[in-house]
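Memo to structure team: turn this sequence into structure tokens by end of day. - J.P.
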Amino acid sequence: MGFFDFMKGKKGAFLGAPVKGTCIPIQEVADPTFAEEIIGKGIAIKPSDGRVYAPADGTVSSIFPTGHAVGITTTDGVEVLIHVGLDTVELKGRHFQAVAEAGQKVKKGDFLLEADLEQISRAGYDTVVPVVICNSDEVSNLSCKTEGDVETGEEVITYTK
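Reply from structure team:
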């Protein structure tokens, strides 16, 4: 067995920021489901733009009928949930416009949905965007950006699958 054989099948990968904004630790999100990493490990972004893009190549596994959240399974099998705002399901789709559909193949950077951040804030909702790896127990060397501004597509979560 060669020195590098232990790395066979293991490769470093990353997720890009699905929205433009400022990264914060997920533990600072005002919702215990995300802050306590009940769904999975990840990051949160305070968005400066309501346009949401695919963080990696993969398939849209689910898009909520209300348009406030989208699930993507990356080509390497990582299940990513992008949730726009907290408790925004209560808006029943108001201020959200989904473009992607379940089952759709996407490339990193493809446009998925749009949220009217101003209207969501005005309605009294936090617009923070948690980005969570739902099957984080299946990845290793998970590293998350927890501060600083990011552009869409910029590396925010790295992992080994």
